[in-house]
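Deviation from plan, reported transparently: S-adenosyl-L-homocysteine complex.
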Amino acid sequence: MKVIKLRAGKERSLHKRHPWVFEGSIAKGSGDAGETVRIESHEGEFLAWGACSPASQIRVRAWSFEQAERIDAAFFARRIERAIAFRQRLAIDSDAVRLIHGEADGLPGLIVDRYGDTLCAQFLFAGVERWKPVIADALLAASGCVRLYERSDASVRDREGLGAVSGWLRLPAGDGGATAVAIREHGWQLTLDVAEGHKTGYYLDQRENRHLFVQWVRRFGCRRVFNGYSYTGGFTVAALAGGAEQVVSVDSSAPALVRATAHVALNGFDAARHEALDADVNATLRRFTQEGRRFDAIVLDPPKFAPSAAHAERAARAYKDINRLALVLLEPGGLLLTFSCSGGVSAELFHKIVAGAGLDAGADGYLLQRLEAAPDHPTTITFPEGEYLKGLAIVKA
Ligand code: SAH
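Because the crystal trials were delayed, the predicted structure below was used instead.
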């Protein structure tokens, strides 16, 4: 067993069960990509079992802090079973659920979403890459699903020195391998393609926020809704379900908008109630401001403007700008649902950015609710870095 010895004093974060070891914390030792290593303090005390990633700044990620635990097929089966058992207890009202959420489930770099009977997985770290066949078998055994598609094409793979890979990892004999799947969320019918959609195909993390949105649209009687960064129209369907008369979905992805339009029809809503705009959200908000248009509810769910804290300042300007425009376009009493999924922007900073946007727009608002990712995308108490999606529901004063 290879040993990674930390520099003096660098054992503190592992003592707190934080699973990452950065390159700069290591005094000596290395391992091959994905190899299991023993991580110890400068004094030789056992800290954790981990997996190496020689190409990454996060050089080792911990599998386990228990010295007696062996990193083998049974270990992966236990972790996967525990993660799935937690999801079952959440009693999520959908057949589309995130089963494995990386570090929070003790499986660094592994993302697995379940869409009906199909699993879609991302292996984003050398450790899970090395154990892929074992993990694939354990996922099928624990979930009861028989189809597993791999979408390991996220850019973080580059930092791990891993290329992009996608395709079926497990498919029963005789299955034609259709990558289009149908799911049900809050009673709505939705579709996605595990081979082509963003991430694994759909944004499950917004499930509970879409549900809240239906209720608010209904309660506040929102008639005109702007869904900015709509992707395939999850919040659009929610707005229509809440009784909105007119919904504008804006996204820069034409295929996503085609699907959003299809979702409106699939759920029995009149196509005349929906307008899909293939455009930049910022530019559209500006144009609508010039045209004097007004909305009763606006959703802003942009992509990650700040992948890390280093990009926070530029991202802050971009967030502030769209939120300022949205607060101008909203009627008094109107509802703004605004999000950031940037790991580099904390919830506190995001609140400050939106406050600045309100000042510039000359608008104040009641903070109706703070929003976060759905509970099948958990954060653990020892790994706050895992928290990424934050949002605010605001009623314009
Ligand atoms: N709210 C969606 C998820 C949004 S993901 C849901 O509930 O499913 C972010 C979306 O922003 C993606 O669909 C991406 O295509 C889109 N996007 C990225 N940059 C954009 C821009 N400048 N203008 C419009 N859309 C953009």
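The mean pLDDT is 96. We consider this an acceptable substitute for the interim report.
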